[in-house]
Structures are given as structure tokens and as C-alpha cells.
Design a protein that fits this description.
heterotrimer; A mainly alpha (632); B mainly alpha (293); C alpha/beta (148); A: 632 residues; mainly alpha; two-stranded antiparallel sheet; two-stranded antiparallel ribbon; 74% helix; globular; B: 293 residues; 12 helices
């Protein structure tokens, strides 16, 4: 248990340290970051080793001090939001936070007085998986951020250097995430949830320019709406059943627990940027890259689906669960379609994130062993591949001055290692035999067993996914001799190191897929349902064989084709015979024209405007139905 | 025929895969030859001999290999390997989804080879190839879904031995599959990215910048793929092997017939029509199936 | 033994032709004469082609185009000059823009005379071109064997 408390508090200490350290001591900052990363990762791994055999373990940790502290911090956050919003002349957050505070504090000081909580903390396999993600990947991103922010400030001297505050927030965020996944006490869960609610917009608004402030407040508003839902859920839970613990909640009679579960699911939907709350995630792309990587791909949005997955066994076989499933499936499909029409790299990644989260939410709605299995696999593989992609796009953005896919021509010639890392990340997202596709097809089976209509969503969503990823992959893979110079030297060794670590992690996790599924995912699914789906040995070995052969063939082939002295005759591309040199040809009126290639974006069919509104509209209807069926 | 089925069942999975790997190019090449001969006859010509595709492939292997960049032939080799794997897994009788994975993977490698060359024609061919892939992908997945709903398993070996006629349970899915089969065979009206009959479509579409052995490999890979695609048709009629073989061959002839009668669709129409048609037939099939059960 | 006789793929280039010989060449592909039965395909990309069929005489601009396309063809390859203009320039050989027949810029292997060249002559020329292809391939193999 001490490990759990340490993991929650230690990042906070690091955060305070980061806030206090003066700006210039870069090496010291890096060292502290490395130490913190090593400590937290080691501890997460220790948790895995120590607790992987046991089922869920519960710990008592009685401390009224902690409860009072939490209350104080919540009050501070509420006041901070009020002051901050008034200063920026936005009044909606004020209203939201006041309503929420009235509900929560009213609750705390009346019926909440007598809350008896048996176990405040707990740990089970799902928490361990999340802890591993936060500990290893979250820290790697913070570590990357240390180097990144230094250059960021140099690159944009007009932005006020609030680096210390930035790192304070990043590490505090890690601590909050740890606390979230270890909390059994739902009030504590809510506390850590609210910390992420306030930290996320502040990190998004780092640049402090007009666009960032707009995004920041949109995020803040939506987070507060979600928090409001959460608060309502807590109040209804306690007033109906006098229970304030996750494990006891799971054992309650379904009728009592349905409304609170749906409320918390509502909050989770908001936090993981499902429709109708998706606009905060796409707007959050103005933030510096480490923020996007940390919050919006590997940790905070995972907190949202974590909450939903925890609530899903309580909603099993209800109409509300069906609504959840439709919502997730619809989000998956619509955002995948929108991603086809986006040329801004970060937006494609954002929509792809929402899409994957939609699939996880749909699995939560189905709530069968197979669905839970694939949901966890999707979480793991997404958490490893997506930050890699965000970091790569971030590097592109300010080394090569563009985040637009159309400007990533010949990336493999300009910055080969970066392009290789990007391709690994993209392959991890949609190509067999990497993990994501296994997750998607396990989801297909889970859907077919429950609600065959949902297979449509996977079918069309998969097609859309193949479309926009292969488009992008092809773009960075174009090769043209003699026309581009190597820009690799612009990327610092530190960044290359972190990207290499992420790429290696992606490959490793995919290669270790059988281990991952049997050691990490199966035990959790078993603890919830009593059984776990067993993919056939042949299937697994074929997938493993495909992966292994790719790992061997790809480097060998690249080496052979790159370095061997095999005789080959190189000629120009076909321009109808009018070639002038590698890139240009003789056009009409004898002008020299350069051949340019552009991707299809099909914005007429998959434009963001129309599809987004459709998504919001359908999701609002589904949410109304979801609440309707539980209240009535 | 039952002896053939008996032989098939007695072979181990590896023997079946080996049989596919050895025999499929010959069958595929002959089918391609029949295609050209029949097309010629329908056009009032004499047409090349049936063994012509083999002559073409052999000649291409004897040609010099010219490239635009060093790496362009490598994705083609991967395209070949994974298509053969997909077919081998299918005829070996294993999980159908593995076949779908492998086909998608090989398709992506094909597209990447087109992109890596950075030639305008190749690039447009690659983009259209992606659109083609996105057009038929939903149907392939719904095909797997349909088989699962009807028989309760994804395993091709079990589906092939299923006693009840799948065609009666999954007529919509069969119709949808026939529709996208034209796309997968790269026949008019869906021969957008590299046409087998329209020899100068986009100059040569995706394959514009490939020559010699690489081109031969692409051709042979298409033969493997064609045999796999026809094998899927067999599954719908597997309750009566003779009927299944006849229908399979008949569908191929139907494809040739359609090829000769239709002009090429624009890619917008291809994309939209295949998605709409897929949705219509698959949804209705699944709904009706759900109601019956 | 080479397979070029069985599967000669032709790329057709019009230098400055009046299109008469082009039409005759395309007529050879039509059901009336049908060179498709010999495995001939009128291919679009030079990288796929064995035989370069050139019609029309050569001027400065078409010189460059022809040379580029010829350079992009993989070995073994032959050039067939179809029609008198491609063979020698015919009535245009003294014009100030015309350089002459194709052999002024590229090594022609087969000459098919006629104005316009008849499909029967074109087919005859094709067979000769196929023989030439086989010859070149054997030569190439010999050279490789001697070198390696």
C-alpha cells in the first residue's frame, strides 16, 4: 500500500521541485526528470510483479486529515476557477463551478458527514495496467517535454516562459492520475478527477494567446459539465444506498446503482472527448506537443474510459448500456470519417484518438468478456502508439515548420529516423499484425455476439482508418533523388533518444502481445466475469509469426536494398517523355513545371462541419435516451 | 467430388497451404488467360492463347530491372508474401479474419510501393488504390461478420463443411460480395488504379514505374489473389461441391461479361455506390437474419 | 530461349506523324488484323515495353521525347520505325525543322515502309522485331556469361 501512496505523492513533490527550480538549470532539471521517471517506472513494474497474482486488493487508509485536505484543495480549485474566469471575462465556468460546489459542499456537510469508508485504496490488474502506462509512458513524455520546452521557448520568444509552472502541472497531473486509478473511495476518485479537470485547461492555455485561451475555456467548460455529472452521480449514489466505494458499488442492486453509474459514465464520456464533447480535444491541439501527447493520448482521456469501464459491469444488459454502445460505435465511425478530410497532422491524430476511444466506449457498452478483453488491449496499444505519433508531429511542426500533412513530402529523405518512427507509430495504429487490429477484430466478434448491427460501424470505420493512415504513410514515404537535403541534424539527440524509446516500446508491446494478453489482460477480465476469451493458439501463432517475420524481413530488406551493390539501373519517372530533371518536366507553352502530388481529402463527403454536427446531434439524442431510461 | 473433399480433409493444414502455394499461380494464370481469350472473342477478335499470361510473366522475368529509386521493389515483395499468406491461411482452413488482416496488409504495401515512387501517375494510381481499398473493405469485414452470424465460427475449414446452404441465409452478403468482386478483380467498371484490360489507364496506374521482375511478381500476386477471391464464393455454396465449383467459375465469367459491357465509373461513383450498396444489402441481410433467428 | 516472341509489348510514340501510320498501327490491333493474338499489348509505360514503335519524322522537340522514352525502356528493346516518315523523313526530310528519320537520333532495328504503312507490313515488321529481341537477349546473356 505504501507504494500506492508513494506513487501518488511522489510526483507532487517532483512537481513542487520543478516549480521551485530556476529556469536555467537545464541539466539538473533533466537529471531530476530522469530520476523521477526511473523511480516511477520501477515502482509501477514492482506493482505488476508484486500483485499480478492476487486479485483485487483493498487497503484501509483512514485519515481524516486527508479528507480535510481534499476538501480544502477542492475549495481552492473552485475559488481559483471563479477568479480566473472572471479575470478573463468568461462567466459560464463561474456558473458551472458554483453549481457544482454547492452540490458537493452541500453534500459533504450534510449527509456526507456520516460517510463510512472501509477501503480507500485498492489495486487490481486494471489499475496496474493504467499505472504502467502512466508511470512509463507518462514519464517518458514529461522527460521529452523537458528538452522540448527549452527549445519551444527559444523558438517562440514572444510566449512568456512559464516553464516551471508547466512542469509543476505535468507532474502534478501524473500524481493525480496515479491517485485516480488507485482510489476505491469514490470521493477520492472525484477529487483526483477534479484536479485533472483544472490542470488540463491550464496546460492547454500555456501559450496565452487568443486561440489558446478560447480552447482553454472550452475545455474548462466541458470538464466542469462532466464534473457536474459526476457530482450528481455521487449524491444520488449515497442518498440511495449509503455506499461510497467502488467495490461495494459493484455489489449493489442494479436499480440503485444505475443512475449514479450513468452519471459517472456521462462524466467519463466528456473526459474522453466523445461526441458531443469532442470539440475540446480538437481545439486542444494548440497546446505544446507534450501536452497533446500526455493528456490527449495516453493519460487523461484514458481516465475517462477508465471510469466508463469501471462502471460498465454495473450497467450490463440495460438499455443504457446499449445507448453507450451505440454512442461509442457512432463516435468511432464519424470521427474516422472526419479524419479522412483533415490535412492538419495534429487534427488527424486527435480525431483518430477520439475514434479509438469510441471503440473502447462501445466495448464498455457491450460489457462481455470478449469486449472487455479487446477494450483493454485497445487501451494498451493506443497508449503506446499515439504519443509516439504526437511527438513526431511535434518535431515536424517546429523543425520543419509545418504540421500539415501536405508539407511532409519526402520526409523519409529529409529526416529518415523520424519518418521511420512515424511509420512504426502508424503501423501500430492500423496495420495487422500489430495489436490495434487484433483489438479491433476481437471487438468485431464481441459485437457480433451482442448486437450485429454494430458490425457496420466497425466495417466502415476500419475502411476509413485504412484510408487516412495509408494516405499519410504514403506521403512520408515518397522518395526522390537529389532534390532534398538532409535535415536530421536539426533534431536534438535527446529527442531522437525519446522517439527511439517510444518506437521500441511500440514494437516490444506488439511483439509481447501474447504475454500482454495472458499476464495483464486475462486476469482482469477473469476477475470481472469469471472467464476470459481464449483466442486459438493457431491464430495467435500466425499473428506472432507475421510480426516476427516483418521484424526480420523489414530491416533486412531495407539494408539489402539500401546498401547492397546489386546492379540496378535507375531511370527517371514517366512524364510522357518530357522530363527535364528529377522533379520537373516541360509543360505547355514550353514552360518548366514541377510535378507536385497531393492527397485526396474528400472534404466534400467527409468534411468536418457536416459530419461533426451529425455526430453531436445523434449523441445528444442517445444521451437523452440513456438518461431517460434510467430515470424513468 | 467427395473423394476430393476427403483428400482435403485428410491433409494437414500445412499440406493444404503448400498445395495452395504451388497450384494457385497455375490456376490463376489460366483464369487470366481465359479472361483475355473470352474478352477477345466477345470483341470479335481471335485473342491470345490461354497460356499467354505465363508467357508474359516468363518474358518479364527476363527483362532488365529498371527502377526509379532503390527501395520501390521491396514493398512489392512484401505485397506478394502477404497475399500468398492470406490465401494460404484461407485454403488451409484457419480463421477468416486472419485472411482479411493479411489481405489488408498486403494491399497497404502495394499502395506504399506506388507512393514511394513519387511519380504523378503512380501517385494518382496509389490514391485510387486506397479509394478502392476503402470501397471494398466494409464488405469484406461484413462478409466475415455474415459467416460468423450464420455458422457461429470464423474458421474457414468449418464453414466449408457447413451442411446448410449459406447462400440461402446470406443472399444479401453474396450480392454485396459480387459487387465488390469487380473492384477486387480490377475490372471495369471499377478498374480505377491499374487496369488489366484498359492498358493505358492512367498510363499504367500504380504500376507505371515498375519493370521486369517486379511487374511479373505483381501479376503473379494478382493470380494468387484471384484464386483466393473465387474461393470465397465457393464457401457460399459449399453444401454441394459441384454446384459451388460451377457457381465459382460462373461468377468469374460474369465478371468478364460485366467488364466488357461497362465503361469505367468515376472514383466518386465507385466509392459512393459500393458503400451504399454494401450498407443496403448487408444491413438488410443482418436484420432479416436477426428476425429469423 | 527467350519468351519475347510470345509476348512482345509495344509502346507507340508519335514523333511528328500525320497520324496515318498511327491509325494503321491501331487498326492492326482491331478485330480485322488482331495482333493481340500474338500476345501484343499496346502498353502505356515505357518501363513495361519491349518494342518502341515510332511513326513520323523527327524534329528537335520529339528528339528529346523519343530519347527519354527510349532511355526509360528496360533491355532488351528494339525500335521499329513505321511509315516512310519515320524511316527517312520521306517528303519532309529537307524541311528546316525536320532532322530526318528516326535513325538520325536512335538506333532503329526494323524499318517498315509505306505511306501509310499497311497493317500487313506492320505485322511483318513486328515479327522481325521479335526475332531481333530474341537476338539481343541472347547477346546480352552471352555478354553476361563472359563477364561474370
Amino acid at each position: 500500500m505504501n507504494a500506492l501512496i508513494f506513487l501518488t505523492v511522489f510526483p507532487l513533490c517532483v512537481a513542487v521541485l520543478a516549480a521551485l527550480l530556476p529556469v536555467g538549470l537545464h541539466a539538473l532539471r533533466k537529471t531530476i526528470g530522469i530520476i523521477a521517471a526511473v523511480v516511477m517506472s520501477a515502482l509501477s513494474v514492482y506493482l505488476l510483479i508484486a500483485y499480478h497474482d492476487a486479485g483485487p486488493l483493498y487497503f484501509t487508509f483512514d485519515s481524516p486529515m486527508v479528507d480535510w485536505c481534499m476538501l480544502g484543495v477542492e475549495l481552492f480549485i473552485a475559488v481559483f476557477v471563479v477568479v480566473f474566469s472572471i479575470r478573463h471575462k468568461r462567466y459560464l465556468p463561474v456558473v458551472l463551478v458554483v453549481v457544482q460546489s454547492v452540490i458537493m459542499f452541500g453534500f459533504e456537510f450534510t449527509s456526507g458527514r456520516g460517510i463510512q469508508v472501509e477501503h480507500n485504496l485498492f489495486i487490481d490488474m486494471f489499475s496496474i495496467i493504467m499505472a504502467l502506462i502512466i508511470g512509463i509512458i507518462g514519464n517518458a513524455i514529461c522527460l521529452y517535454g523537458i528538452g522540448y520546452m527549452a527549445e519551444y521557448q527559444e523558438h517562440y520568444p514572444e510566449i512568456k516562459d512559464r516553464r516551471r509552472f508547466f512542469f509543476f502541472m505535468m507532474y502534478a497531473f501524473l500524481g493525480a492520475m496515479f491517485g485516480l486509478v488507485f482510489s476505491n473511495n469514490i470521493m477520492w476518485f472525484y477529487f483526483f478527477w477534479e484536479i485533472t479537470t483544472i490542470l488540463s485547461p491550464l496546460l492547454i492555455g500555456y501559450r496565452n494567446d487568443e486561440e489558446s485561451i478560447k480552447s482553454m475555456f472550452r475545455t474548462l467548460n466541458m470538464n466542469l459539465i462532466g464534473g457536474l455529472g459526476f457530482a450528481v452521480g455521487i449524491v444520488t449514489l449515497y442518498s440511495g444506498s449509503h455506499v461510497m466505494e467502488l467495490d461495494k458499488m459493484m455489489q449493489l442492486d442494479k436499480a440503485l446503482v444505475l443512475i449514479p453509474a450513468v452519471c459517472i459514465v456521462f462524466a467519463g464520456l466528456e473526459k474522453s472527448a466523445q461526441f458531443p464533447f469532442s470539440s475540446w480535444l480538437t481545439g486542444a491541439m494548440v497546446a505544446p506537443t507534450p501536452v497533446s501527447a500526455l493528456l490527449h493520448s495516453s493519460t487523461m482521456v484514458k481516465a475517462g474510459v477508465y471510469a466508463i469501464l469501471r462502471m460498465s459491469p454495473m450497467m450490463k444488459d440495460t438499455a443504457a448500456a446499449n445507448m453507450l454502445m451505440y454512442m461509442g460505435g457512432m463516435t468511432f465511425l464519424v470521427t474516422a470519417l472526419i479524419a479522412i478530410s483533415q490535412s492538419n497532422g495534429k487534427k488527424v491524430l486527435a480525431y483518430s484518438t477520439i475514434s479509438n476511444l469510441g471503440l473502447i466506449v462501445a466495448c464498455a457498452g457491450v460489457s462481455s468478456p470478449a469486449a472487455l478483453w479487446s477494450a483493454l488491449l485497445l487501451i494498451i496499444f493506443h497508449a503506446v502508439s499515439k504519443p509516439l505519433l504526437f511527438l513526431c508531429v511535434g518535431v515536424c511542426e517546429y523543425k520543419l515548420n509545418s504540421r500539415d500533412i501536405e508539407d511532409m513530402d519526402y520526409l523519409i529523405m529529409r529526416v529518415p529516423k523520424l519518418a521511420a518512427a512515424m511509420m512504426i507509430g502508424m503501423a501500430g495504429m492500423f496495420l495487422a499484425p500489430f495489436g490495434m487490429i487484433v483489438g479491433k477484430f476481437a471487438t468485431l466478434k464481441a459485437f457480433l455476439d451482442q448486437s450485429p448491427f454494430m458490425a457496420m460501424s466497425i466495417a466502415y470505420g476500419s475502411a476509413a482508418t485504412v484510408f487516412f493512415w495509408s494516405k499519410w504513410m504514403g506521403k512520408i514515404m515518397t522518395i526522390k533523388y537529389g532534390v532534398t537535403q538532409l535535415m536530421e541534424h536539426l533534431i536534438s539527440g535527446w529527442e531522437k533518444f525519446v522517439l527511439a524509446v517510444f518506437a521500441a516500446a511500440t514494437l516490444l508491446v506488439c511483439l509481447a502481445f501474447p504475454l500482454v494478453s495472458s499476464r495483464l489482460v486475462d486476469p482482469y477480465v477473469q476477475s470481472v466475469f469469471g472467464t476470459y476469451p481464449v483466442p486459438s493458439t493457431f491464430t495467435l501463432s500466425v499473428i506472432f509469426g507475421m510480426l516476427a517475420s516483418l521484424f526480420i524481413i523489414l530491416p533486412l530488406g531495407l539494408y539489402y536494398y539500401g546498401h547492397s551493390s546489386k546492379e540496378y539501373k535507375r531511370v527517371g519517372t514517366y512524364f510522357g517523355g518530357a522530363n527535364i530533371d528529377e522533379l520537373s518536366f516541360r509543360g505547355p507553352m514550353d514552360r518548366q513545371l514541377t510535378a507536385e502530388t497531393r492527397n485526396y481529402y474528400l472534404s466534400r463527403y467527409f468534411g468536418e462541419g457536416v459530419l461533426f454536427n451529425i455526430g453531436v446531434f445523434i449523441s445528444l439524442i442517445l444521451i437523452l435516451i440513456m438518461f431517460g431510461v434510467v430515470i424513468l | 467430388m467427395n473423394t476430393l473433399i476427403g483428400i482435403y480433409q485428410s491433409m494437414s493444414i500445412f499440406e493444404r497451404m503448400l498445395a495452395y502455394i504451388i497450384f494457385a499461380p497455375f490456376i490463376g494464370g489460366l483464369l487470366a488467360g481465359i479472361d483475355r481469350k473470352l474478352t477477345a472473342r466477345l470483341q470479335g477478335r481471335v485473342g491470345p492463347p490461354i497460356r499467354q499470361p505465363f508467357f508474359d510473366a516468363l518474358k518479364l522475368f527476363q527483362k532488365e530491372s529498371v527502377v526509379v529509386n532503390k527501395f520501390q521493389n521491396f514493398p512489392i515483395i512484401l505485397f506478394f508474401i502477404f497475399t500468398v499468406l492470406a490465401g494460404a491461411l484461407f485454403f488451409g482452413g484457419s480463421n477468416f479474419l486472419l485472411t482479411v488482416f493479411s489481405l489488408t496488409l498486403s494491399g497497404v504495401f502495394f499502395v506504399l510501393s506506388g507512393f514511394s515512387v513519387s511519380s504523378p501517375y503512380s501517385h494518382v494510381g496509389a490514391e485510387r488504390e486506397i479509394i478502392q481499398t476503402a470501397s471494398y473493405e466494409p464488405m469484406i469485414i461484413l462478409l466475415a461478420a455474415g459467416f460468423y452470424l450464420a455458422t457461429g465460427t470464423f474458421n474457414v475449414g468449418e464453414i466449408a463443411l457447413y451442411k446448410k446452404p449459406l447462400i440461402l441465409v446470406l443472399p444479401g452478403i453474396f450480392a454485396g460480395y459480387l459487387y465488390i468482386l469487380t473492384i477486387k478483380f480490377r475490372k471495369s467498371p471499377f478498374d480505377l488504379s491499374m487496369s488489366h484490360e484498359g492498358h493505358q489507364e492512367l498510363v499504367r496506374g500504380l504500376t507505371t514505374e515498375f519493370s521486369g521482375p517486379a511487374l511479373a511478381l505483381i501479376e503473379i500476386t494478382h493470380w494468387y489473389e484471384n484464386v483466393l477471391l473465387l474461393g470465397i464464393i465457393y464457401l457460399f455454396f459449399a453444401f454441394n461441391p459441384w454446384l459451388a465449383l460451377a457457381v465459382t467459375f460462373g461468377s468469374y465469367l460474369l465478371e468478364i461479361f460485366i467488364d466488357n459491357n461497362y465503361a469505367r465509373f468515376k472514383w466518386q461513383l465507385t466509392f459512393a455506390s459500393s458503400w451504399v450498396f454494401t450498407a443496403a444489402v448487408a444491413v438488410s441481410n443482418i436484420i432479416v437474419f436477426g428476425l429469423i433467428r | 530461349m527467350g519468351w519475347f516472341k510470345r509476348s512482345p509489348w509495344v509502346i507507340h510514340c508519335n514523333a511528328t506523324s500525320c497520324n496515318g501510320c498511327d491509325i494503321e498501327f491501331l487498326a492492326s490491333l482491331s478485330p480485322m488484323y488482331d495482333i493481340g493474338r500474338f500476345g501484343v499489348i499496346n502498353i502505356g509505360s515505357p518501363k513495361h515495353a519491349d518494342i518502341l514503335v515510332v511513326t513520323g519524322s523527327v524534329n528537335a522537340k520529339s528528339t528529346q521525347v523519343l530519347k527519354t522514352i527510349y532511355a526509360q525502356m528496360p533491355n532488351p528493346k528494339v525500335i521499329m520505325a513505321v511509315g516512310l516518315c519515320a524511316v527517312s523523313g520521306c517528303v519532309f526530310q529537307d524541311c528546316y525543322n525536320v532532322q530526318g528519320g528516326v535513325d538520325k537520333v536512335l538506333p532503329v532495328d526494323v524499318y517498315v515502309p509505306g505511306c501509310a504503312a499497311r497493317p500487313e507490313s506492320i505485322i511483318d515488321g513486328l515479327f522481325k522485331a521479335c526475332d531481333k529481341l530474341e537476338e539481343k537477349y541472347m547477346q546480352h546473356k552471352e555478354n553476361k556469361r563472359k563477364a561474370g
